[in-house]
Structure formats: C-alpha cells, structure tokens
Amino acid sequence: MQQRKRLLAAAASLFFINSNITLAADRDSAKQLSMSNLPIEIGLSGLFSAGGSSADNDELAGLQAGGHDPNRNGFTMQNVELSLSSTVDNYFDAQANLIYLIDTEGETVVELEEAFLTTRGLPGGLQVKAGQFFTEFGRQNKQHPHTWAFVDQPVILSRLFGGDGLRSQGLRLAWLMPMAWYSELYVGAQNANGETVTSFLYAPGEEVGGHQLQDRSADKGSDLLYSARWLNGVDLSDTTSINIGFSGLMGPNSSGMNTDTVIYGADLYLKWQAAQSQRGFPFVAWHTEILKRDYDAGDASDPAHESLRDSGGFSQLLWGFKPGWIAGLRYDYASADGDAAADPLRDNRKRISPNVTWYPSEYSKLRLQYNHDKTEHLSDNTNHSLWLQVEFSIGSHAAHTF
Amino acid sequence: MKTYLAPLLWCVALLSVPQAQAALQVVTTTQDLAAITKAVGGKHVEVQSLTPGTRDPHFAQAKPSMIRKIYNADLLLLIGADMEVGWLPALLKSSRNRQVLPGNPGYLDLSTAMTLLGKPAGPVTRDMGDVHAQGNPHYWLDPDNGRLMAQAITERLVTLDPDHSDAYRRNLTAFEQRLADKMHEWQTKLAPLKGAKVIAYHTSLIYLAKAFGFEIVGEVEPKPGIAPSAAHLNRLIKRIKDDQIKLLIMEPYYEQRSARFLQDKTGIRIGIVPQSVGAQPGINDYIQLFDGIVSALKETQAL
What is the residue range of B44's domain? Predict the structure, then answer.
C-alpha cells in the first residue's frame, strides 16, 4: 500500500493519457483523426461489490487477502481498470492497464498494473515482451480481476504472490514450439523486489514464518526473479479442449543475504462446449492449479535457519447452463509446515465457494457468491461471507483470451 | 537449469512436424469461407476453419490450437464487419505470423468485397444490442455474395500462388456456373415464398430474405442478442395474427422454446435453417448449404 501512488498520481495519469491521445492526433494532423477512428483501443471496466461476513473488517483483511477482493462488510470498490492498447509501428504492439481503486481508508489508489510492448514479427515463433507485466505462472495469475470467475482470488495465490498478483518489470521470451499441437515455452527475468513480488525481495521489516525480512540489495543477475512456463493446448474433440501447463519461479528472498525462494506449479484447464451453442452456451469448464513454495528462511549462518514449505491449490468448475448464466463451484486449500496456526498467510485453510453469475450482455455482469471458510488463525474457525458483485465494461470490444 | 534444457530441446526436435508443405495453407474463421476456398483452390490449397458451422462465429472461443493454425497459415480469411472481433484480434497478436496480419496479402477480410445491408443510419450505442456499425455480417447467406466471395478469394490465391492461377480461375468459372444453375433451381423451389412476411429469431437472415424475395418483418429477439421477454413475445403474437405471418425461421443453435411458444399461440410454422456449412450433417459445401436451407423451408409446408 505504501508504495502505491495516491490521488495526485491519479490526476497525473489521466492527464498523461489525455495528452497522449492529443499527441497521437497531432502527429497525423493532416488527416485530422477523429475520436472514433483513433488507432488506439480504449476500454474501461468497473468492478464493485457489496456483502457481509461473519468475520469483522479486521479479520476480513486476513481472509480476503487479495488486493482486489471484496474485503469489508458493506461496499468494496474492487477495481476500475483503464486499458489502452495499440499497434506501435511495424515492429511492436503495446498495452497499458491502469487500475484505480478506493482502499479501506477511502483513499483513491492508482496502480500501473501493466505497461508493456510485444514484438510483432520475430522469426522462428519467438516473441519478446518487455516492460511491467504479469509473470507467466499458471493460468489464474495473469487474469485481470474483471475476468475472474469468482469475486475473489484463490487463497494460495494471495499467499504466494500477494494481493495484486505476481508482476514486475522485466523481459519475457516466448517460443511457439514446432509441435503438431500448441506448445509454448515462456522464460522470463524480472525485478525481484517490490510489493507485487511477494515471496521474493519483499518487504523489509515484515515477517515470513517468524523471520524478520531485511533490506537486501539486488545488484547482480542472480538477484532477479527467473520464471519458466510450458503451456500445451490440445483439442480432444470438436467439443472438448484441454490446456496443461507447468510453471517454475526462482529468485532471492529477503529473509537472509543468500536465501532463495523456489515456487513451482501445475495447471489444468478442460473445457467442453456443446456442438450447437448459442452465444457460447452451454459449456462446462474445469480449472485446477496446484502450487508449492520452498522458502529458505534465514542464512545458513543463522541459528534459526530453516526451510519453509507452503503448498495449496484450487479447483473450480463452471457450468454455463443457459445463455448468460453460469453456476460455479470452487474449492481452495492452503497449508504450510511449522508452527503456522496463528499466521493468516500460513495457517491451514479450506474454503468452498459456490456462486452464480448472470451476464445481461457481454458488457455487464451480476454475481452472487458464498464463501464457507475454515481457518486456524481466527478464534471462530468457521466463517461465512456473502458477496454480490457487479461489473460494467465500456469502450472497445475487449477480445477474450483463452 | 542447463541440464534440463538439453533433453527438452531433444524432445522438441523429435516431436517436430516436418514442415514440407507444398499446398498453400489457408485458415478461415468459418466453414463457409473454407468451403468456398476449397471449391476454387482445389488440390492446390489446404484449408482449415477455426470454428465449426454448428456454432455462432461471433461467440467463438479463442483456443491455443487456433494459434498453431494461424502461425502456419499463408492466408487468413475472415468474415469481417466485427463478426470475429471478440476473439480474433487476441489470436493474431499471439500468432507471430506477419504474413496474415491486417494490411498484408495473407489477410483477406471478405466483408470488404461486399455491399453490406443493415448499416445503422445513426450513431451506434450498445443499448441497441449487437448492432454492427459496419453493417450486417451474415452476408454469405446470399448465393450472389457467395459468388463475390469466390471471386475475391480467387484473386487472392492468384496473388499468393501465381503458378496455379489458371487452375484457380478454371475452378472459379466452374463454381460460378454451378452456383448459377443451382440458383435457378432454388428460386423455382422457393417461388411461393416471394413477398411473404416472415419472422426470424435474430437479425442474421436478411441476406437470405433478399436473395429469395421474402420480407423479414420482426425478430424473436427484441434487439439483436437480447433474450426475448414475455412482453415482446406477446407483441409478436399480435403481429403474427394481425399480419397472418405463416413462417418463423431460425438457426439450429438458438433456443427453441420461444419459437414453440409462438407456434402454440398462433400456429406459425417453424423452419430451422442451417446457417452455415457444417451446421447440420450432410452440409459439406456451399451448394449443399442452400440445398439444406431450401429443403428446410419446403419441409415447413408454410409455402
């Protein structure tokens, strides 16, 4: 939170966007581009929720640890996202996603969620991405809050990747491999420090498993966060397709001067869509991810040195039973070794979340979700929450990825 | 890391598909485009459609397997007029194939070869439902547009593969001749439909109506893409009775409850018409598509 720019930055970034548009138009003053045919796609989506929980607001902060989760009894402004994208020139495409939200103190927060360029035509099936972007890890991490199938992010992702998903500044190379099916290898290097790289060089002064985190410098190549992902996609039949991915992360952590974190995971996405479908319905989609983290806590010279292991996962089933209507069920679990029962980010936890979503059109949605939570760190081990979410989306027709 | 990389690269090398592709690789967004391309391309092209004819191409889902297909393509054919706007742009960004990006010879938007109907006169807002600002994109349902599509595709094949230009032009002539012969047959069979007032489910059959001289006077959907309300259906019932409308036509993939309700109340006949090649078994090319449509309309006995 401390690192986020506040209200002034909000005004500044809006000005920046406006001046950008003006500049683009100036460059082509001979043609006098009108707003309707500006070669830039602009979209705005807003995500709000209302709800209540058997937990109070302080406890909810630990239960709903995602930065864009509904996290308070009453109303939450989860995410207002401004997306801009365009082809830069013959060589690059670019995209920026700016997020505005109002925190529990009522302050407007601005995040530069992503801003990156990608190459358009490298040979050999290669593509480079550079800038600030979500790390390729699993399927869920890259998804923006307005595309989530549930109102909140999975517990294990909040624990290992923090409230805002794993993202940072860096480079990523993708290689579409010459196989008969879709098979793509991603390798990346990104800065390992900052609020959005939890599990690595974040955050000095805080604690992980009782180990005080230090202010560790990051000067060498080995101080970066390295990532790899191998994603495969196969059509099993005309109606069913499957994606299987394996991901790994390696980077320094700040519990010592020579300590590392390794995170690895696997993800599966299976989708069935009826041969004859109206607006993409009916369908069934099953999405499962498991993640494990090995966290070196304290240098070898430190008597309290230990290796912390965290693991967790989620499995969610979506059933689009008629056009515009989706019923969902998600199961979350997370656990860690050692004496972690009092730690909201490391205790044993299970959560079951049924929900139902109605899309009046592709540009709006209403979602009702119930969370049944079993936690160790709260005196009330069982918590119940009910959330109602609404979303709007205006501007250019955002293309959906798979 | 390095110890793992070597075996991985070996696996990739072993699994690699031989890239010996003599025929021109064409990828289309719909099976209608694929069928016409096959007709004029013959044995010199290899055609794959990204979506099946059983589904509404506007709501296709981008799948990783589509990236693979576009990556290998020499030519990408699309319906255009925002038909594929929900899924194709993201795929093109991921596909790393410069040849098939807009503005290149490997990219052909067939809507640019058509005069589109249903272009909204005023400004478009999303309150109007799924209205396409550039006009109605269901143009392949007029056989004469099929002819224009075949011509545009032929010209593009000739540009990309001049060695076989004679074969492409011969195939085009044969296709045009066959289409003209069949058009005569279809017109004769559907002659009783001339001037008839018809209800459609969605605003997707106006080109069919134009081709065969009937008039679509209303839709089951109150606005394109908006599910019918009880009030709207009641208005339709009155309309059907007042105007003595005898036929309701719709694609196989729409829900049939609303149409059955109208049928119960008014006795209107329902024609489930295949809207695309591949929409129903036995419809494997563009000619069979209209054979299927004509026989579905005849079967309603509303004529």
Answer: 22-111+138-184
Whether B157 and B224 share a structural domain: no
The domain that holds A279 is classified in CATH as: 2.40.160.10
Are the Cβ atoms of A179 and B96 closer than 8 angstroms?
A: no
d(CA A155, CA A148): 14
Q: pLDDT tens across A339-370, in order?
A: 888 888 899 999 999 999 999 988 999 999 99
Closest residue, chain B, to A280 (C-alpha): B59
The answer to whether residue B122 is domain-embedded is no
Assess if residue A359 is contained within a domain: yes
* CB nearest A399 (choices: B15, B67, B86): B86
Report CA-CA distances (Å) from A221 to A191, A226, A252: 10, 10, 11
Instruction: Please write the tens of the pLDDT for every residue from A226-268.
Output: 999 999 999 999 899 999 999 999 999 999 999 999 999 999 9
How many domains would you assign to chain B? 2
A154 within 8 A of A199, measured Cβ to Cβ? no
Token readout for B283 is 């419809």
Nearest alpha-carbon partner for A354 in A372, A381, A333? A372
The distance of B106 to chain A (nearest Cα, Å) reads: 14
Min Cα–Cα distance to chain B from A363, Å:
9
Instruction: Report the residue of chain B nearest A397, measured CA to CA.
Output: B86
Which of A129, A144, A179 best tests the B interface by mutation, with the highest count of B CBs <10 A? A179
Domain range for A362 is: 43-62+115-395
Q: How far apart are CA B73 and CA B97, in angstroms?
A: 8
Residue A402 and residue B52: Cβ atoms within 8 Å? Answer: no
Q: How confident is the model at residue B3 (pLDDT cuts 50, 70, 90)?
A: low
The CATH number of the domain holding residue B209 is 3.40.50.1980
ipTM for the whole predicted complex goes beyond 0.95:
no
Average pLDDT over residues A293-312: 93
**Mean pLDDT over each residue of chain B, to the nearest integer:** 92
